[in-house]
Design goal:
mainly beta, Elongation Factor Tu (Ef-tu), domain 3, SH3 type barrels, 2 domains, six-stranded antiparallel beta barrel, six-stranded mixed beta sheet
């Protein structure tokens, strides 16, 4: 399984017991969707390795308490600490209307209501305080905040995102 075929679900943040149980901090608004998984992928040295789940339950809202098969000791659990957790993309719930996952809109054209064609989304930078659309316009990078107030419409069949940005924002980059 490759990372491109998966989505980030969370990170192993602590041990729960001396018998190898772990707590995973889930990066989701709906943690209950992931309470009864059979398996997941753990990023070990940039390789996604499948781990099968013996038992799991939600613990304090966004933490998932997990017991993996063949992780029976504190030493086994220590080896997995701070590792990222992934699931295949097909586990993502379907979104309705103009809602989207970041990976879905890579390659979409961006049209501003006032400016016209801005360019093509090449990635989403979510490492900043506010996520940013990274848009390529003939080799020039344009950054637009991922903000509901700026997004007018998502046309999935035509792979176009319609935005209305504050006056002058796009001109800053050109």
């Amino acid at each position: 399984m490759k990372k491109e075929d998966c989505f980030y679900l969370g990170k192993i943040v602590s041990k729960y017991s001396f018998k190898g149980e772990l707590l995973i901090k889930l990066d989701t608004d709906e943690p209950n969707l992931y309470e009864n998984l059979d398996a997941l992928f753990i990023d070990l040295k940039n390789n996604l390795v499948p781990f099968f789940i013996e038992s799991s339950q939600l613990h304090k809202s966004d933490l998932l308490r997990v017991r993996f098969e063949d992780v029976d000791t504190e030493a086994d659990a220590d080896a997995l600490m701070k590792c990222d957790i992934y699931l295949p993309l097909e586990f993502l719930p379907k979104l309705e209307g103009d809602k989207f996952y970041f990976h879905e809109i890579i390659g979409y054209k961006v049209e501003d209501i006032n400016y016209g064609l801005v360019g093509t989304i090449v990635s989403i930078n979510d490492a900043t305080a506010q996520a940013l659309f990274e848009i390529d316009r003939d080799g020039t990078e344009i950054l637009i905040p991922v903000n509901d107030e700026f997004i007018n419409k998502l046309d999935k069949p035509n792979k176009t995102l319609f935005v209305e940005t504050p006056e002058g924002l796009i001109d800053l980059y050109l």
